[in-house]
TrEMBL record:
GO terms for molecular function: D-ribose pyranase activity. It is an enzyme of class 5 (isomerase). This is D-ribose pyranase. The active site is at H20 (proton donor). Its main location: cytoplasm. Pathway: Carbohydrate metabolism; D-ribose degradation; D-ribose 5-phosphate from beta-D-ribopyranose: step 1/2. PANTHER family: D-RIBOSE PYRANASE. Its EC number is 5.4.99.62. The keyword Protein transport does not apply. Homodecamer. Belongs to the RbsD / FucU family. RbsD subfamily. Catalyzes the interconversion of beta-pyran and beta-furan forms of D-ribose.
Length: 140
């Protein structure tokens, strides 16, 4: 059994295969997943697992250079947006490299998910709780 925080084998595999600038999307329960992307469905029920909890675990394994969120999150999901900004600061400190935050329209976000190695579906049931993670490198 793995000793680290991430136990899901499909997600661990996708992270292990990720190289610099590769993208992984963490999505709420409602985001459409493009046919071209691997779908890793973690959703068990409404809210389980939560978006923020999933991101916390993924960040223990993935060096994150930048992220993309929908600008609608700022308006329609202030609580998650606030938690996300705090978490991104914490992750940036832990990995000794700040994370660049990019915002786009929700429509542009959905289009960009097609570039992801995988879309990780959580049980999150709040609006616009989605993020595209761009992999960084662990060296300078």
């Amino acid at each position: 059994m793995r000793k680290c925080a991430l136990l899901n084998s499909d997600l661990a595999r996708v992270i292990a295969l990720s190289a610099h600038t590769d993208e992984i999307t963490i999505a709420d329960a409602g985001l459409p997943v493009p046919e071209c992307c691997e779908r890793i469905d973690l959703a068990l029920t409404h809210g389980v697992p939560a978006f923020i909890d999933t991101l916390k675990i993924v960040a223990t394994e993935l060096q994150i250079e930048s992220v993309v969120i929908a600008e609608e999150m700022l308006v329609y999901n202030c609580a998650v947006h606030t938690q996300l900004l705090q978490l991104l600061d914490e992750i940036g400190e832990a990995q000794s490299h700040p994370i660049r935050l990019n915002t786009v329209s929700h429509q542009a976000f959905k289009t960009q998910t097609a570039n992801s190695r995988a879309v990780v579906r959580t049980g999150e049931c709040t609006p616009y709780a989605n993020i595209i993670l761009q992999a960084g490198v662990v060296f300078k």
